[in-house]
Amino acid sequence: MEKYDVIIVGAGPAGLSCAKQLGNSKLKVLLAEKNSVIGPKVCAGGLTGKSIKTLNLPDELIEFTYNKIHLFNKNNSFYIEDDSNFAYTIDRKVLGQWQLKQLNKFSNIEVKTDYRVSEITKEYVVINGEKIGYKHLVGADGSSSLVRRYLKLTTEKIGVAIQYIIPTTKYKDFEIYFDSNLFSAWYAWIFPHKNYVSIGCGGDPKTISSKQLRKNFSTWLEKHDIDVSQGKYEAFPINGDFKAYRFEGNIYLAGDAGGFASRLTGEGIYQALVSGGEIGKIILDQNYHSKKIDALIKLQNRHNKILGTLVASGKFRPLLVEAGKYFLRSKSISKKVIKTIA
Could you tell me where the beta strands, DSSP code E, fall in the chain? Predict the structure, then answer.
């Protein structure tokens, strides 16, 4: 049986970040991706400043940058803005391929595509019918993680997002729409990309069923006269049910597989990058304690409290959003909110 020191399941931002951290080490690493191409993923493609800083991403890969977001509540609108850019859009394939190129210089890392894990045991995984042994196993395989299922972890705090990818360049602003009647505590968005736009919304299946959310989204699209006839419909889960990131001493969960994503903002790329990289450090040094993951957990708890308040506010939710509009006129408050979410 072929053996590796580390097997990373999933070559998304978390898996690629973990592999990079393990580069140039003495460990033999396998990065296994079930898809034929690394990068493409159903995602709105929004990034925050934290992600850009973590990646040290070249400017030419970024499609649009924003120092303000246009927020809408009922028939009113207002802006949340800062002196510098804090919101960005990028094509996920471009991001994944750029991260992949960072691994080319490392001889100890083997990347395989069309490499699907079907079974996991304490000593080996089965990939494409072949048993492959490991010392450390990293689950970076998204919200529907096979590694997470092997660990028998429940996933209750999960959101769902739906969107249309529409081939148009007519949209320029980064826009967020609050509508309590349609989306409860969540929102709809318009994220412009270079050759298309992502127009979508999010919700919690416990509050709004997926069927009802799609119906409500159709109502919102019609209200705003948005034509999706040429768009591609997509849906994806957002796993914010964090339990832990290390199990049985040698199994780890990163990114959405670990439940690091924010159910408040929908952001998951930053959390994936940080958790993947930090797990790589832990594998290299078993005594390493990650303050960055501590910060991720703290941030998620803060987001969950805000979300819980919004959900519990019920019919008073629009009033909270309206009050927020006036508070955000203060630059100092606006900057604090941006720091919290971006």
Answer: 2-9, 29-32, 46-48, 64-66, 68-73, 76-81, 87-89, 109-112, 117-120, 124-127, 130-139, 158-166, 175-178, 187-192, 197-203, 232-239, 246-247, 251-253
